[in-house]
Design goal:
Layout lengths: L16 H4 L1 H19 L12 H6 L8 H9 L3 H30 L11 H18 L10
Helix pairs in contact: 2-4, 2-5, 4-5
Length: 147
């Protein structure tokens, strides 16, 4: 008597597209809500947001100083002003948008989310870049990078 055929292994079907795309879409919605809020509450008017603690205590601009003014200008479509307020933040906005777009595209096609697999030396280089950006924007010749 022949051996019975093995039972077929059920294929693991991913959920519907909407469920697969829920996480990147929720992330995009959160980022859009944050930009909408900052775009509606002008950080250039005093009293709406707290002052950077490092700047308040030392007068030194950190890499994030000017980020809210940058986001406000970016939300209003004023890219030159956004770059003038915090160029590093604007680069971050575009990197975030590109990563999220790739993530959403891959998710809708049933592929896994892209991984950011940088070597430690690359993370150190990014940190060094942020440090150089911070130092240069506090020096007289780097005044163009200050908010």
């Amino acid at each position: 008597m022949p051996a019975p055929a093995p039972a077929p292994v059920p294929a693991r079907e991913p959920g519907p597209r909407a469920r697969r795309a829920a996480v990147p879409l929720t992330l995009l919605a959160g980022a859009a809500a944050a930009f909408a809020y900052v775009g509606s509450v002008n950080p250039n008017q005093p009293g709406h947001y707290p002052v950077c603690p490092l700047f308040r205590l030392t007068g030194v601009l950190c890499p994030g100083c000017g980020g809210l003014r940058s986001a406000y200008a970016f939300a209003h479509g004023d890219l030159p002003t956004a770059l003038g307020a915090n160029a590093m933040a604007v680069v971050g906005y575009f990197c975030f948008a590109a990563y999220t777009a790739v993530w959403l595209s891959r998710t809708l096609r049933g592929k896994p989310a892209p991984r950011i697999a940088l070597k430690p030396v690359h993370w150190w280089a990014l940190g060094a870049l942020a440090l150089v950006f911070s130092v240069v924007r506090n020096l007289p010749f780097g005044a163009a990078l200050a908010p």
